[in-house]
Design goal:
Length: about 180
């Protein structure tokens, strides 16, 4: 295959998140802003995508007032500080092809202006016109200065403790250009 460039279709792409605490878990979505990927000879892959932190939604809380309070808290400085940092980024720094459209990927994740390396596997299916990329990234929020109710920084939290890791289930649809 010749080198091909793909642009992420934000409207057709999804990111689902799950965060856990002692008493259960919460889940929701967060929007993809944009992204580009390049696939080349020898199954090389490069690319980057941006997440719009202002679009975080909570799916498991039905009460409108509680949902709004929680969403506003996630957008605050306790978590993503969306006003100051409206975007988070993931950029592939290295990808090794594996079997069955699987790639072993090293990348840089940037949240709140702080960048840390992340290792993950990326499932990629391409046609002439589209590419579908799927991965799960486990994020240690404390590496990105998200300390709220973390046992790394606070004691005696009891059942208010929020676990440090949260999951991002990423499904990107990109179109050739």
């Amino acid at each position: 295959m010749d080198t091909k460039n793909f642009k992420v279709n934000a409207g057709n792409s999804t990111i689902n998140w799950t965060g856990r605490k002692v008493t259960g878990a919460h889940n929701g979505t967060i929007g993809v802003k944009e992204g580009n990927f390049t696939f080349g000879e020898g199954k090389t892959v490069s690319g980057k995508f941006a997440i719009d932190t202002r679009t975080i939604r909570i799916l498991d809380i039905e009460d409108t007032e509680t949902n709004t309070q929680f969403a506003n808290h996630l957008a605050s400085d306790d978590f993503f500080n969306s006003e100051m940092f409206p975007e988070a980024y993931f950029e592939i720094t290295h990808a090794e092809p594996g079997d069955e459209n699987l790639y072993y990927v090293k990348g840089d994740l940037t949240i709140k202006g702080i960048t840390h390396p992340i290792d993950t596997s990326l499932h990629i299916v391409t046609t002439n016109d589209t590419a579908v990329l799927k991965t799960k990234i486990i994020v240690d929020r404390t590496k990105f200065n998200i300390k709220f109710r973390s046992s790394n920084f606070f004691t005696n939290l009891g059942d208010t403790l929020i676990y440090n890791n949260f999951d991002l289930h990423i499904h990107l649809v990109a179109e050739a250009y």
